[in-house]
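Human
Can I borrow your eye for a moment on a structure tokenisation matter? Give me a protein, with the fold worked out from its sequence. Write it directly below this note and I will take it from there.

Assistant
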Amino acid sequence: MKTPHFFKAFTRLGLTHAPVRREEPNIGVEEGSDAIITEGFLNEIPDAKVTEYTFPNPEDIETKEYFNILTTELKEFKNIINQNLKGDELQLVIGGDNTVTFSSLLALIERVEDVNKIGYIQFDSHGEINSFAGSESKNFHGMYMRPFFDNFDISILDELIPQKMKPEQMFLFGDQILDGDEPKFYEDHNLHSITFAEYVENKQKINTELSNFLKIYEYIHVNFDIDVFDQKVAGATGIPEDGKWMKEEIFELLNIIKCHDKLSFDLSEINPKKEGSEQTIKIAQEILKIIIK
């Protein structure tokens, strides 16, 4: 069993505006990793290692400099991950807003070198694969996956990922609400995110498909946005009303995924300042314990 190495990312740099259908930005999400990776939590995992990185806040950056600074910060966090992660350690990136996935997946790609060896599993109520031009909110946390699977219309970010992944390397879970140009991207590439109702109805079939997907790829990266849950389960997040999934079904899937021997994982969008934070944090900690053990 690999030694867990938590990379705590204090960030909401991907949130320059309020999320779609919200009036206020998700202030407080930058404190999510501290709320999850507590001293008490770490006492249960005595061999765990922790590395921290603090991103600047978006309001401290001039608009004209935003993408230059974002690119620099994402690269630097990627470097922090790869400079500190040892070969016998499990990469666990904890946000912060969902932008942390960019650095997390990029770090894995840099280590592996060949993107064709990587399978990507997403748990999310949103596609996170808009182009900048197509985005309704203009928040990068809703675009961070596009540069990995397609040419991105912000060149300095697109250049960070010259070798693109293929859409068939994705396995998606979540009752996703797509916006901007995401519906067209999904249609053009025949993508589908498995909904909660579909999973309950076809559990055995989907579990088998997931197990077969895990066998295809030497490396697996899991991107877990806490908003995939129904808000009764985990409501302290950006847009809690979009989630539909229940704890038992998610945990069943994670128990299948955790058996892969070359796994990396990121967890994001927990806001400890919002109502229901105690329960949401507890769920996040339970998720990490499943992946670790």
